[in-house]
Amino acid sequence: MTIRSMTAFxxxxxxxxxxxxxxxxxxxxxxxxxxxxxxPDWLEGLENLTRSALSKALARGNVSLTLRITRxxxxxxxxxxxxxxxxxxxxxxxxxxxxxxxxRVEVRPASAAELLSFKGxxxxxxxxxxPAPLVxxxxxxxxxxxxxFVQMREAEGAALAVILxxxxxxxxxxxxxxxxxxxxxxxxxxxxxxxxxxxxMDNADGADPDRVAQELALIAVKADVTEELDRLGAHxxxxxxxxxxxGAVGRKLDFLMQEFNREANTLxxxxxxxxxxxxxxxxxxxxxxMREQVQNIE
Length: 298
Known about the structure:
Layout: E1 8-15, E2 19-28, E3 33-38, H1 46-57, E4 61-71, E5 79-81, H2 83-102, H3 112-116, E6 122-124, H4 132-202, H5 209-223, H6 226-245, H7 250-270, H8 274-294
Parallel strand pairs: 3-4
Antiparallel strand pairs: 1-2, 2-4, 5-6
């Protein structure tokens, strides 16, 4: 399995003796799977069929599908007025004219053509044809459309995997550099702690040397970054495994990015060394870039 991007687009067109149609399927990032459909409601069963197909093929993303259908001139149904919609339009216009009159604003009456131009007032009947054959034809085409859509998400995912693997190599290299800087820091910290211990003993009559030494040793332990570097190495290995495993691993990768960031922050806060701080800040930059890419993964 490969990882998939949540960003994709696919379209298709088709026709029969009585109808022609066009599909548009697109998606963007989302925490879960949010499917929004715009399909003609007179095609009974098509919405459920479409939602089921998308739910089986996709795990995450804000997915929008639009289906537009037109009838051929020979088979077009009769144009008719939707009385309920027209009534609501007339009522709204009446209220607007009344409000305008109260405010001494002249408003000319709307013409019949203007009333009919409002959305939903005029509608085309579907005719008396059985929609089942059309739904079946659309269902077959839907399978191809979804397959192309998934293929595009996989192609985008493959490109993301290349970017993320490169960034993981950068983090691994920076972790190795941080380990080197930490070793360089040891001699300096040991000298600083020894000097601090001597200063304290010279200015603290009756202080217990063992107790002071213990406190300074505790400070040294708190400044140690070995655990942070070990965890960063483990996170790099875990992220690489997820990219190899593939599938819907976006949430797991997003969690790992939080852990990467946590360790990098701790590394910087413990650094007390300009070289180690510089490596930690560079690592944080790479991790932020990784996190932006991970937001696109299913």
